[in-house]
Specification:
Blueprint lengths: L1 H20 L2 H12 L3 H10 L6 H9 L7 H13 L6 H16 L14 H10 L8 E12 L5 E12 L4 E9 L10 E6 L2 E8 L4 E12 L4 E9 L8 E6 L5 E8 L7 E7 L7 E6 L7 E6 L5 E8 L2
Parallel strand pairs: 1-9
Antiparallel strand pairs: 1-2, 2-7, 3-6, 4-7, 5-6, 8-13, 9-12, 10-11, 10-13
């Protein structure tokens, strides 16, 4: 019993420290540990408060890999304060302070990138509406993306070529995700099935700028089968674009990203960047050569890891 009491005292001390200084995810993790609640129980208590949050989202929140941002998520944070017996506004205050710090550290000319990871609640809801599991039974061997920047310096569209391997029997589709720039109109975007697939159901969310599209294969894959397919998204609904990034939830194969600029809308410089998570600072910044003839720039990741990788550019 003395060891149990000692551990409880340590957990309470860590919680007090985290609530005073943050950051949010550390305080949340410490509060859950201090109360000795598994995430499934936390989810159950939230549902009794009329708030629906997945166990995966709760796990990512306490790891700092995702941040509660949507109104429903903020309702969950306020409910967590009650469930975990915390002072009113304690978690909300830390969340607001960390967001202010992030905004202050963000370069003024950079895009406020609401990554797919940060928009996890919306993405989970849209994918669930299509009955799509987290990885869909597919492992990515290769993913090549080509981005087009238009004459108004907007994200005009993109094309994706996927090489996948099934790790279970019966896989016959893929759910593609497109995340537009701030101010985009996903209801005005169009999805084109270009090779070895056809377009199925499409769902979108205006506030987050997310669009998900079901791409149906012409065959059912068996475990171990490989498959190639290609699709495109016509966007062009937002303002000036300053970067394009791709988030990865699982380790995978090769990823190649090419950004091509329209004549008359060519940036002065381009850089590669990476982030371990949305809560982490950007790293691996490296200037990329811009092809004068083809007005394009690219990066290649031989093997992807969970996190974010992308290209940003400066219009001068």
């Amino acid at each position: 019993m003395p060891h149990v009491t000692q551990r409880a005292g340590v957990a309470t001390a860590e919680l007090d420290t985290a609530l005073r200084g943050g950051p949010f995810h550390v305080a949340l993790r410490a509060a859950i540990a201090a109360r000795g609640l598994p995430l499934q129980r936390v989810q159950h208590h939230l549902s009794r408060h009329g708030v629906k949050v997945g166990v995966t989202s709760l796990s990512y929140w306490q790891q700092g890999a995702r941040r509660p941002q949507r109104p429903e998520s903020l309702r969950a944070v306020r409910a967590l304060e009650e469930i975990l017996q915390l002072p009113d506004e304690s978690l909300i205050r830390l969340l607001a302070e960390s967001e202010e710090s992030r905004a202050a550290a963000r370069p003024a000319a950079s895009r406020s990138y609401r990554s797919l990871v940060e928009a996890s609640d919306v993405l989970e809801r849209l994918q669930a509406d299509l009955g799509w599991a987290l990885d869909g039974g597919l492992h990515t061997l290769g993913h090549h993306e080509r981005i087009r920047i238009g004459a108004r310096r907007e994200l005009a569209g993109r094309e994706s070529h996927h090489i996948v391997r099934a790790h279970r029997d019966g896989v016959d589709r893929f759910v593609a995700v497109h995340h537009g720039d701030p101010g985009c109109a996903p209801q005005r975007m169009t999805v084109h099935a270009l090779e070895n697939c056809r377009t199925g159901r499409i769902r979108w969310d205006q506030d987050s700028g997310l669009l998900v599209a079901e791409l149906l294969f012409d065959t059912r894959l068996r475990s171990g089968d490989t498959f190639l397919f290609r699709y495109g998204v016509e966007d062009g609904t937002a303002g000036v674009s300053r970067e394009y990034a791709r988030g990865f939830g699982f380790p995978g194969g090769q990823y190649a990203l090419q950004v091509r600029f329209t004549a008359g809308a060519v940036p002065v410089r381009c850089h590669r960047f990476a982030q371990h998570s949305t809560a982490a600072p950007r790293s691996g910044r490296q200037e990329l050569p811009l092809s004068g003839l083809h007005r394009s720039v690219h990066l290649v990741e031989p093997r992807t890891r969970p996190g974010i990788v992308g290209i940003c550019w400066d219009w001068g």
